[in-house]
Structure formats: structure tokens, C-alpha cells
Amino acid sequence: MAHELDNDDSPAERKAYRHCAPDRFRVRLDLAYDGTDYAGWQRQTSQTTVQGTIEAAVRQLFGEALSVVGSSRTDAGVHALMQVAHFDAAQDPRRFRDLRYSLQCLTPDTLVIKQAYLAPHDFHAIACATQKTYRYSILNRRVPSAHRHRTTWWIRQPLDVDQLNAASRILVGTHDFKSFQTAGTPTETTIRRLDEAHWVRDENDTLIFTIRGEGFLKQMVRNIVGCLVDLQLNTRPPEDIAHILAAQDRRAAGNTAAPQGLFLVQVDYPPELDKRCLKL
Predict the structure, then answer these.
(1) Domain 131-265 classified CATH 3.40.50.2300?
(2) How confident is the model at residue 187 (pLDDT cuts 50, 70, 90)?
(3) Contact indicator for 30, 244 with CB cutoff of 8 Å
(4) DSSP 8-state secondary structure symbol assigned to residue 36
(5) Measured between alpha carbons, how far is 50 from 163 in angstroms, rounded to an integer?
(6) Among all residues, which ones are annotated catalytic?
(7) Band of residue 207 on the pLDDT scale cut at 50, 70, 90
(8) Looking at the DSSP assignment, which residues form a beta bridge with residue 174?
(9) What is the mean pLDDT of residues 9-19?
(10) Which residues, in sequence order, are CB contacts of 90 under 8 Å at separation 6+?
(11) Where are the beta strands (DSSP E) in the chain?
(12) Which terminus of the chain has fewer Cβ atoms in its 10 Å neighbourhood, N or C?
């Protein structure tokens, strides 16, 4: 598979949700990674991926081939400050003195195991997630940065935060986001709910876009960012975003933003379920 998928909450996947078998142990991992050197989350036969790297470490530690399920299938080059994953093992993970550290010793420095938990049998990284938050960063100045090119999209032309926010506010709420879905991922519906879509400019000439919702279509966040930038660079009014939504046509939304500016920053679960995840 040449491209990673962002369609991380499709109804089909939620229907496929399975409890952990009673004779196995469900382990939850909280992860962070620099996605630059990975061909996305999902395992591929000929490229290094986040899922494949974790599964290799888990296989070495637990002595069996296990499938690791991630809450969001981030694209090639996309980063995570907080990714959540789970797997089911025959061995009790409490037999390890420090499972988090043991796994970390088997993964590269670009992939950090932030925490490991013994999760309840009904925890599922995808199906139980209630919201996901992404952040996109644009370095907006005349000169690029030699040290931030892995984590920002450089745009030389000045961008106006107020104009970006005026367009972004139209996207908040429940809409059909078909115009912002990259083709190639079957899904029963392209309707999604966004609870936040907001831009700020920090003191380092960086525009930071925070977007939060119940789930996202394939490359939806990058397509939204690319569209918002295109509107400004082509001096189109923010209100045009409503026409692009209504078109339900990917061609209406313009370019896809570069992957390196995107971070998965938070995955939320019901508080009562979080409390039942026991730190290892």
C-alpha cells in the first residue's frame, strides 16, 4: 500500500470491534513518534512503518506474532505526540518488571513508548475513541528554517490568521466532508462532526491550526489545510469554503498540505474506561 489511510473511524471498523478473548491480555500503549522516516502507521511489506516497528518489538518480547491496532492511521511523514494502540497477548504483561522500558529498548529513538497499561477486555483503540485532536504547523516567513523543516510546512507568502479563522469557523459542526476526502478508502458515510477548527500565530512566525472532532476521513486534515491556504493565496473570500463543502467533490478543495506539518496530539476515551487501564 503506497499511501497511509486517515479514515480512522469508519462505521465498518467500529462494527468489526472485538473484545479481547477471555484467555488473553489486552495491552494499551501510548506512543509518540517523529514520522519523517516512516511510511505511515500501517504495516507494509517493503517499507518501515510505525505499526510494523512496534509489532516487531512486541513479537520479540512476547514470543508471538501479534497485531497492534492504532487509534489513527497517520500518513507517511505525519507525526504523533499521542497515539494510542493496543494488542492482545497470551502472556500476562505484568510478568515484565517494566514493560514500557522493555519495549522502548527494542524501538528506535524516533518512536517513544510513553506508557503501557493492562487494559480491560472491552477497551479498543479505535472503537472506543470519542474525539481526536490534530495540530498543523506552517512556518510563515520569507526565510525557511534548517531545523524545523521536518515539523512545519514552509510558506513564504504572508497568511492572515483572521481570514484563516473566518473560513475555519464555517467547517465547525456536522457536515458532509466528501470534498476533503482523498479517494481510495471505502466508507459508509463521509459525514463527520468537527468541534474545533482554530488558528493562532506564535512568536516564532508559526501558524498553528488545531482541529478536533469525533473522527476524520482519509487525509481530511491535510486537505482542509491545503484548501484554506489556497483560498488565501488565490485571494478568494473565506465564505467560499461553504461552496466547497456543498460541492462534495475533492477537485473543488484544491491542494493537499504537506505531511510534515501534521501532528496527532490527543486521543480521548470515556473517563471511566481510562480509569480501568492500569499502568504497568
Answers:
(1) no
(2) confident
(3) no
(4) G
(5) 36
(6) 75
(7) very high
(8) 193
(9) 59
(10) 23, 24, 25, 62, 64
(11) 25-33, 69-70, 79-89, 111-119, 131-140, 153-155, 173-176, 191-201, 206-213, 262-268, 278-279
(12) N
* Least confident segment among 10-19, 59-68, 268-277: 10-19
Decide: 80 and 264 in contact? Cβ < 8 Å: yes
Helix 161-171 to helix 220-233 angle (10° resolution) is: 130
Residues 6+ apart with CB under 8 A from 30: 82, 83, 84, 113, 114, 115, 116, 117
Residue 144 grid coordinates: 525557511
Average pLDDT over residues 174-178: 97
- Domain ranges for the chain: 11-128+270-279, 131-265
Looking up cell 482523498, which residue turns up?
182
DSSP H or E run through 230:
helix 220-233
Look at residue 2 and tell me whether its pLDDT is greater than 50: no
Q: For residue 112, what pLDDT is reported?
A: 98
Integer angstrom CA distances of residue 34 from 49, 179, 261: 11, 29, 11
- pTM for the full model? 0.93
**Beta bridge partners of residue 80, listed in sequence order:** 33, 264
> What's the average model confidence in pLDDT over 161-184?
95
Architecture of domain 11-128+270-279: 2-Layer Sandwich (3.30)
CA 70, CA 193: separation in Å to the nearest integer? Answer: 21
C-alpha cell at 82: 499521542
Q: Which three cell numbers stand for residue 275?
A: 480509569
Q: What is the DSSP string of 8-23?
A: -S-HHHHHT--PPPTT
- In tens, the pLDDT along 70-119 reads 999 999 999 999 999 999 999 999 999 999 999 999 999 999 999 999 99
Fold matches, 11-128+270-279 and 131-265: yes
